[in-house]
Structure formats: structure tokens, C-alpha cells
Write a structure and sequence with these properties.
The complex is a heterodimer of chains A (286) and B (312).
Chain A (H helix, E strand, L loop, with lengths): L1 H11 L3 H23 L37 H37 L1 H16 L2 H12 L3 H10 L2 H15 L3 H8 L4 H12 L1 H24 L11 H8 L8 H28 L6
Chain B lengths: L2 H28 L3 H5 L6 H10 L6 H13 L13 H36 L4 H15 L2 H15 L12 H30 L2 H8 L4 H38 L5 H11 L2 H29 L1 H5 L7
The chains are: A mainly alpha (286), B mainly alpha (312).
Chain lengths: 286, 312
């Protein structure tokens, strides 16, 4: 008993790494919200006189461009800010749409049962069996790349996890006293799920949301890195990294800066997701 | 092995393959008339009509579907736009190189992940556990394209120890394998740890300790066989992620495998090759899942008997 209560006590506050992660994510969120205000230059403004200038701590750096310039003389700091905004916005939008879609289908499966349930779960199994990156690449090949299709792919990513999770949660929650009571009072299914069941099963769904978000960032940046996602003149962290990769020999920062941004963001999200999971899921308290 | 268990698994595998073929067919037809995409814009109507009937595009959609399905079953996905060779042939040339990369990665990740996970579980909440799990989180938060580029920067450009890209010698394999194995090893270490923790808290482990079995024997003879099922599950689950990772990694290191072929074909919109690769991945995933299911039956006798009657 003593060891359990000791570990519980330790987990009550945020551990130091989680605190750092939260701070970093706060900074990322502010960047995403204020990129245009913070950026010293328009992110697409070229200046061919000052190409491939290094960041401030190296020789030949320019005061006007603290993180240097890229192959077209564009300000790396401004590009990094806007790229972060694009990547975060895409991942956030994708995660939210995907979660809503998955939850809706999960509720539908649990509520209707029968062949609807079977069909949705078969779809879930199928989606889980196919690596999503491959499906996304195939869709991009068939339809050709465009922004809205790309966003739709981000939204589709991970829906099956939410659907399965929601279905399971609802099936067990429905039989509990409060749900039976609400139903006995004559509430319609929509009201029952939205007002009573969902708030009660929100914990695991929030955890899943926090675990899915970094995965969505990785999907977007991977596709953009391969040159098959966000297309210039728009930029994203993956697209920047993909471009910078051609200049590793004489301008390594062009690849390393956006890469570090992606890594630190996904790492922070994972740390917080893990922490949330141990906080919200009683079976993880070991 | 229980026959019903096997039949259900086989049916599910067949359903997945059917769904993939159907998905590709539907998406392809949604994108518009294939004849318009394949033929030049200024082609004469008679010639277009000739090709239409040659490709069966004048038939009803159901006839086309049956025809497509039959061709897919025989591995016929059409001709590559780029060099006029059958798509399957082009893909098949690349498969050994991806398998080489994949199997080396697989073995590396297991050899790193499982021992680290067990070590962490045995030293729970002590510094070995903290460091190992920290590394694991680090490993699977690291985008593989970024890790690959960092490794190229350090080992190829800075220290000039290893080739930055290409294929040929064993030295070419080190960086791609390490890149691809990192995330996988991290996931396996975490799951091995939690599977081991679950087992270590069981009564029979205390019994084994009371009987005087040494630590090595307890882990090897009693704990590992019981932790094997969740570990095998996560290995099966990770395969899909690894296939996606291989696509990116092959690109970073110019590894001439299926993944690089896929991204190039997507860029060129070489649809025949893309279809072939999607089907190849689907077959691989289905076979892997079947293998995992069969491995359950072998590792855990309770699965063999079926869900209804759980005997010990």
C-alpha cells in the first residue's frame, strides 16, 4: 500500500519534463496564433543579394536575419514562424475533424447495433490494417495534389481509433445507472449521448486526442517533406525541411531548424499525452 | 488448431484484400475517365473509341469492376507510363532491397527494444527505467526524416565515417537501419516493459521466487512466455508504421527500394505502379496479421481453444 500511495503522491503535480513540455507548447501555440505579427519579413519575400546567410551565432550573419536566409534569400525566422503556424493549424484541424467523425461513427455503431455496427467495425478493421501513409500517397497519386484534398487526408487520419474507442466506451456507459435513468426520463438518443454519456467518457477520448495530435503532425510533415504535401509558395515545417535537405553541406541550419521544431513539438505533445494518460486512466496507476 | 478460429481469420483477411481492390477501383473511377488521362488531348475520336473498347471502358461499370478484379488477382495492374514495363515487374525488382532494409531493421529493433523493456521493468522507477523510457519517448517522437538527416550531417558530412546515401555495401545499411529502427525499438521497449510489469505482479512469479528460481530463470522461463502475447501484438501493429517509415527513410537515403519507387510514382502519377504497390502492401499487412493471429494460438493455448471455453 505504501508504495502505491507514494507514487500517487508524486504524480499529483506536473513533473519537470512535463512542465517544460507545457511551456514549449504554449510558445508554439502563440507562434501559431501570431506568426504574421511576429515575423519580421513576409515569409515569401526573396532577396537574391543575400542568399544562404547563416544564423546569428556564425560568421557572415546579418543582423536583419537572426536565423539566416535560404536559397532565395528569404528570412528563415519568418518562414519558420509561418511554417509552424501552417503545420499546427493543419494538424489541429485534422485532429478535430477526425475525432468528430470517428466519435460520430462510434456512437452510431453503438446505438444502432446490428449490421450498421458490423459495417462500421469492418471499415475500422480495414483502415487499421492499411498503413495510412500508403493510403494517403495513393489518394494523392490518383487525384493529384491539392490543398483541400490534403486537409481531408489529415482529417481522415486516425478516425478509426476514435470510432473503436467511442463505441466501446458508450456500450459500457449505456448500461450504467445514470444513462438508464436519463433514458427512463424519456430523453432522446441525441440528448442522452451529447449531454450525459459523452461528458462521462471524455477522459479516454481526450487522452487519445493528445496522442493522435503529434501523429498527425508527423503525417503532414512526412508528406510535405517528400514533396507530396504542402506545395510552395505555401510552406510547412516538413516542406521547409525537404527544401533545406538539398543544402546540408553548406547550410545545414535550413534543415535542422524546422526539424528541431517538429521534434520538440511532437516530443512535448507525447510527454503531455503520457502524463494525461497516467492521470486520467486509473488502470495505469501502478 | 481450432478450425473455426482459422476460418474466421482467413475470411477477415480475404475481406481486407477485397476492400482494398474495391477502394482502388472506386477511387480510380472517381478521378475521371482513365482514357482521358492516358491518351493525348488531341487524339481523334475513333482512336479514343478504339482504346476505350480495348481497355474495356465501353462496358458497364460492373463489368469493368469484374475485369479489374480478375486482373488484380493475377497481379496485372497495367503498364508503367514511364518505361512501358508491366507494373508488377518493376515493383518486383525493388522488393528484395526493401526486404533487406526491413529485416535488418526488424532484428535491430527487437534486439534493442525487448531487452531494454525487460531491464526497465525489472528496475521499475529507478534510474535505468527512467533513462530507458526517456529514450523510448525520444525515439518515437523523433520524425524519421529528421533523424536520418541528422545522421547524414554527423556521420557522413561531418565525420566522413559512413556513406550518406545509396545502396551496395553493409556500410550503406547502417544509417537507414538505425533511422528506421529507432521509433520501432522505442515502441517495443515500452510495450515490453508494461507487459513484463503485468506479468511480474502475478502470483506465479512469487511462487517461482519462493521455489528458489534465480532471476534469470524467472525472467526467461516464467515471465517472458507470458509477456510474449502482448509483445507479439505490438510487433504486428508496428508493421504498418514501419512500412510508412520505410517509404520516408528510403527517400532520405536514396535507397532503391519499393518505398522510393512509390514516392517517385506518386510524383509522376504513374498509377499502375502505385496500384501495384498498394496491393503489395495490403497483402503484406494481411499476411502479417494472419501470422500474428496464428502466433497467438501457438504462444497462448487459451486462444487455441476459442473464446467460449477458457480452460487452464
Amino acid at each position: 500500500m505504501t508504495s502505491i500511495s507514494r507514487s500517487r503522491h508524486k504524480r499529483l503535480g506536473m513533473p519537470l519534463p512535463v512542465l517544460f513540455a507545457a511551456g514549449f507548447l504554449l510558445a508554439v501555440a502563440s507562434i501559431a496564433a501570431l506568426a504574421q505579427v511576429l515575423a519580421p519579413f513576409p515569409y515569401e519575400e526573396t532577396n537574391l543579394l543575400y542568399r544562404l546567410r547563416p544564423p546569428f551565432w556564425m560568421e557572415r550573419a546579418m543582423d536583419a536575419h537572426p536565423l539566416g536566409t535560404d536559397k532565395l534569400g528569404r528570412d528563415v525566422l519568418s518562414r519558420l514562424l509561418v511554417a509552424t503556424q501552417v503545420s499546427i493549424a493543419l494538424a489541429l484541424l485534422g485532429t478535430l475533424i477526425g475525432a468528430s467523425l470517428g466519435m460520430l461513427l462510434g456512437i452510431l455503431a453503438a446505438h444502432k447495433g446490428g449490421w450498421v455496427d458490423e459495417a462500421i467495425m469492418a471499415l475500422v478493421d480495414w483502415q487499421a490494417a492499411m498503413p495510412f501513409l500508403i493510403v494517403a500517397l495513393a489518394v494523392l497519386a490518383f487525384f493529384g495534389n491539392n490543398f483541400w484534398l490534403f486537409l481531408a487526408l489529415m482529417a481522415l487520419f486516425g478516425w478509426e481509433v476514435y470510432a473503436r474507442l467511442t463505441r466501446g466506451l458508450i456500450l459500457s456507459a449505456r448500461e450504467q445507472g445514470y444513462a438508464l435513468a436519463v433514458r427512463a426520463l424519456g430523453a432522446k438518443p441525441g440528448r442522452l449521448y451529447a449531454r450525459h454519456v459523452l461528458p462521462n467518457v471524455a477522459g479516454p477520448l481526450i487522452v487519445q486526442l493528445s496522442l493522435n495530435f503529434p501523429q498527425t503532425i508527423l503525417l503532414e510533415t512526412s508528406l510535405s517533406f517528400l514533396g507530396l504535401g504542402i506545395q510552395p509558395p505555401l510552406t510547412s515545417l516538413g516542406q521547409m525541411l525537404g527544401e533545406g535537405r538539398d543544402y546540408l553541406l553548406n547550410a545545414w541550419w535550413l534543415a535542422v531548424l524546422p526539424g528541431a521544431m517538429i521534434f520538440l513539438t511532437t516530443l512535448s505533445m507525447s510527454l503531455i499525452g503520457d502524463w494525461l494518460r497516467t492521470r486520467l486512466d486509473p488502470t495505469q496507476h501502478r | 488448431m481450432n478450425l473455426r478460429y482459422l476460418v474466421i481469420k482467413l475470411l477477415r483477411a480475404a475481406f481486407t484484400l477485397w476492400a482494398v481492390v474495391t477502394f482502388v477501383f472506386v477511387v480510380l473511377r472517381l478521378t475521371g475517365d482513365p482514357a482521358d488521362q492516358l491518351l493525348p488531348d488531341d487524339v481523334a475520336p475513333e482512336i479514343a473509341a478504339y482504346y476505350r473498347s480495348l481497355w474495356g471502358l465501353d462496358q458497364t461499370i460492373w463489368q469493368q469492376y469484374v475485369r479489374y478484379f480478375a486482373a488484380a488477382l493475377q497481379g496485372d495492374f497495367g503498364i508503367s507510363f514511364r518505361n512501358g514495363l508491366p507494373a508488377l515487374e518493376i515493383i518486383w525488382q525493388r522488393v528484395p532491397k526493401t526486404l533487406e532494409l526491413g529485416s535488418a531493421t526488424f532484428l535491430t529493433a527487437l534486439a534493442i527494444g525487448i531487452p531494454l523493456g525487460i531491464l526497465a521493468a525489472l528496475h521499475r522507477d529507478r534510474w535505468i527505467d527512467r533513462v530507458t523510457m526517456g529514450l523510448a519517448v525520444f525515439g518515437f517522437s523523433m520524425p524519421n526524416f529528421f533523424l536520418g538527416i541528422l545522421l547524414i550531417l554527423l556521420f557522413a558530412l561531418q565525420w566522413r565515417m559512413l556513406p550518406s546515401s545509396g545502396y551496395g555495401t553493409w556500410e550503406h545499411m547502417i544509417l537507414p537501419v538505425f533511422t528506421l529502427a529507432t521509433a520501432f525499438a522505442g515502441a517495443i521497449a515500452r510495450f515490453s516493459r508494461s507487459a513484463m510489469l503485468e506479468v511480474l505482479s502475478q502470483e506465479y512469479m512469487r511462487t517461482a521466487e519462493a521455489e528458489g528460481a534465480g532471476l534469470g530463470a524467472r525472467v526467461w522461463r516464467h515471465a517472458l512466455p507470458n509477456a510474449a502475447v502482448p509483445i507479439v501484438t505490438i510487433i504486428g501493429f508496428s508493421l504498418g508504421g514501419m512500412i510508412g517509415g520505410a517509404v520516408v527513410t528510403e527517400n532520405v537515403f536514396a535507397w532503391p527500394g519499393v518505398g522510393r519507387l512509390l514516392t517517385n510514382s506518386v510524383g509522376d502519377r504513374d498509377l499502375a505502379v502505385v496500384q501495384g504497390i498498394v496491393m503489395l502492401v495490403a497483402v503484406t499487412m494481411v499476411l502479417a496479421n494472419l501470422f500474428v493471429d496464428l502466433a497467438y494460438g501457438w504462444l497462448d493455448p487459451r486462444v487455441r481453444v476459442g473464446a467460449g471455453q477458457r480452460s487452464r
